Amino acid sequence: MKRIICLLLFLLLCLPTLAACRQTTDTVRVWTLNGTTGFGMAPLIAAADESTYTFTVEKDATAVRDAVINGTADIAALPTNVAAALYNATNGGVRVLALNTGSVLYVVGTDGDIRDLSALSGKTLFVPAQNPTFIMKALLDRAGIPDVVLDSTTYPTPDALRDAVAAGLVTLAVLPEPMLTIAKEAAAREGRALKSLLDVGAEWSNYFNEDSLVQGCVVVRTAFLEEHPEAVAAFLQDYEACIHYVNSYPDLAAAHIKDVGIFANAEVAADALPHCNIIFKSNTDMKSALAAFLAQMPPKAIGGKVPDDDFYYLETK
Questions:
Q1: Within 10 A of 271 (CB to CB), how many other CB atoms are there?
Q2: Following DSSP, what letter does each residue of 216-266 receive, concatenated?
Q3: 136-154 pLDDT per residue, tens
Q4: In angstroms, rounded to a whole number, what is the distance separating the alpha carbons of residues 273 and 73?
Q5: CA–CA distance from 210 to each of 61, 108, 287, 297 (Å)?
Q6: Strands (E), the chain
Q7: Are strands 105-109 and 172-176 parallel, antiparallel or unpaired?
Q8: DSSP code of 248?
Q9: In the chain, what is the greatest distance between 2 CA atoms, to the nearest angstrom?
Q10: What is the Cα–Cα distance from 223 to 237, expressed in whole angstroms?
Q11: pTM summary value
């Protein structure tokens, strides 16, 4: 009953723009990913009237990307590097609306002596392939610590690395939330203590623009934005209210996260949420953070080049 009451309050107080959106366009088709990229959208999925929004939850960023390309999705939540690559691949066919996830990466292990990046010198650090590897390489290079071995082939996926860490097969790794919380709880059941040794986002801020390690965003098809600017503006207001709700009421948000298929375990989601860095950053704040992050990524990770200024949707007041 408490969850129902809170959801009704969310509808009444935090989503005033739903009716306005109905007046401007047909149903807005929103696609999102499970996991942290979709955490901040869960209450909106639970609350939305289908005459305003329809939602599709996917586990594969490629499927979401393709839905944007073929016009099946109007708005989509994606990793920031995928959004940049999509912009380049479509010659400006998408615009980024807002950032929804900051850093979710943590160095985890059993060595309590690791208190800063320099302590990683000479060690092997297991890292999921692709973006986490690119991020750690950029960070270690900037910090002047070139002798860390980044192993992204033994356990290339976050799931595989999580299981290896939980089983004690790996003693030093980079894990994203909520995989970190899952690994800690699984290890604890076996009598092993895993520690969060370093917050990668905090370390990134020591060497690059502060809070510029941004890993998730929402994009819109440029054609849809041009045809329905009011609907896009309404969505952004609804989405910002939704993220505020998630950060203010993590236990209730975790129930929505489970109910709408973003993540299967509400208890794990609730435990992980304080470390998932769910944010809403738009306009010039979004642009400065995302441009700084993308400038540190290898060209192959972002579609060949850093996107130009037209990539960023900046609302005019």
A1: 20
A2: EEEEEEHHHHHH-HHHHHHHHHHHHHHHHHHHH-HHHHHHHHHHTTS-S-H
A3: 999 999 999 989 999 999 9
A4: 27
A5: 27, 22, 13, 16
A6: 28-33, 53-58, 75-79, 94-101, 105-109, 124-126, 149-151, 172-176, 195-199, 216-221, 278-282
A7: antiparallel
A8: H
A9: 60
A10: 20
A11: 0.91
